[in-house]
Amino acid sequence: MPGRLSSTVTAVVFATMVVPAHAATIQITMENLEISPAEASVKIGDTVEWINKDVFAHTATAKGGDFDVGLPAKKSGTTVVKKAGIVEYYCRFHPNMKATLKVVP
Amino acid sequence: MFVRWSAAIAAVALLSGPALAQGTKPTDPQIAHIAYTAGVIDINAAKQAVKKARSKDVKAFAEDMVRDHEAVNKQALALVKKLKVTPEDNDTSRTLSKQASDKLAELDKLKGAAFDKAYVENEVAYHKTVNNALETQLIPSSSNAELKNLLQTGLKIFQGHQQHAEHVAAELK
């Protein structure tokens, strides 16, 4: 019985991790060499979508190496955030473009 | 050092000299030609660097230059087509092109770390010159709003290039 309970708990926890109840898609725009909003709050499991409106290729590259999303001109790209914390990211091609993601559990 | 600076100063003087001397401003077709030429020059320099550079950072910087300047020039071509403007060759464009081909030949003789250093330092000086010309002359002189807007976007991205080049130059020391 305790075994079954713990496996049920595990299954619930696991299911919550894999399919979060309120997974959302947060859109962040890169336009005219600026990232907007420069600070965005997201939850674990949310998808971040960067929309590159420039004619230049950009990237969304986390300083800690969590993600490195290539964004060709006029295209978008996504990543699913997997752990909590403050993630600073920038564009590898235009290092002046910087922004922050606040990932909450 | 003297040669590099005098070339940069000469370029600044040329960009701000003849066209402003008699109080005549460059026309939009001339501005379009100068801006496009300035882009082509940096693309050619970058292509040489992609082939010759030894440092990984210098090569990556050169690849960034090709990518960005080709993107700006593609926009510029689309704009002049839309506006039915024919870019007009002029003394500033001709001088820039001449200086650039001399520079290409000069850099072609260098190898390894010497090439990397000379290329990056020239990129710093060149972007400074072009940014100054954009800021003080080409942008204020342009009359078409879309052309002005494209030049402003160009200035913003080229200022980033200048900082990037300065950073790479500092790392090489």
Automatic annotation (TrEMBL), chain A:
Domain (EfeO-type cupredoxin-like) spans 13-101
Give the stretches traversing the membrane.
none
Entry-linked InterPro entries = Cupredoxin, EfeO_Cupredoxin, ET_Amicyanin
Q: Which UniProt keywords apply?
A: Signal
- Protein name as catalogued: Amicyanin
Instruction: List the signal peptide residues.
Output: 1-23
Under the heading Pfam families, the entry gives: Cupredoxin_1
Q: What is the lineage of its organism?
A: Bacteria, Pseudomonadati, Pseudomonadota, Alphaproteobacteria, Hyphomicrobiales
